[in-house]
Amino acid sequence: MRLVNMKRAFLLAALAAASQSPAHAFLKGGIEQTLGSRNYRGTYLYGDFGDAFHVKPSLNIYRSDTSSGTFKTFAARAAYDKTAWGVGATLGGTATTNDYSNRFIGFDGTLTLTPGTGPKSRLTDKDRAPAGMGLARVDVGGGLKFIRHTDRLEAVPGRGGVRRRPAAVSVNQTDVTLNAGAEVLMTAASVEITRSSYSRDLEAMAARATQTEQLSGVAAMVEGFPKTSSYLRFELNAFPMATPYVSFNRTTYMLSQAPSNAFAAGAYVGLQILELKLELERVTQSGTSGRTYVTLGGAVRF
Fold this sequence. Notes:
single chain; mainly beta; Porin; 14-stranded antiparallel barrel; two-stranded antiparallel ribbon; 60% strand
């Protein structure tokens, strides 16, 4: 019930932002569908309402042959963006599925060292903050995110056998992120590093891996407690309608889970009010077979 009320609040906030925006306010809405190995099916729906101040509600749904159910994550981000800087806050949560749920809140900000008069965008994440323009432009920023994982599963195998624990166990995760981006001529590059810490000893409590972890630059949801995640992305802005890109993510995990490597290549195609996206991704991880994902997306903007 709380999650339903949270979803309603997100939608009301989004509509309020749209109704209070000036005449040059914009609206953007889109959908992305990800299909891949192990019968993975993921759907991402979002809208963005407003101009300098804007609100972005979203819904992320996924399941696969290895997941323990169909997981639904609701989120909303409110942001205020100026030419040289931008700040934002995100609130959301995952509905209880197979005894697992989470709630999260995050804050982020970006400073553009070479502000200009061009369209607002961010080299590290186009959805979140402004950037400069010209021969060379540089963005720097960071974020802080707090996640509370709740697991009601009563028994999980541990190193010494099966350990019993209370019916509900909660673990707090804190993510600290630093990012930077630069553009020279027609090439843009960005890097992001996130370090995660936890409020409890995951080994001692025989924690079950989180069921819905979203990593930067990885289309599919991940199961596991990340430790350090590094993300690198290159874009080529040399074509009038298309922006091709490549990216790489390497993440290490807690609980002796092997590191993962994700390689992706794709492109955005702009057709006036319509934007299309196509991405191919390959994820490798020691001890498991490689996984391949294809993402198709479309968005309209006014």
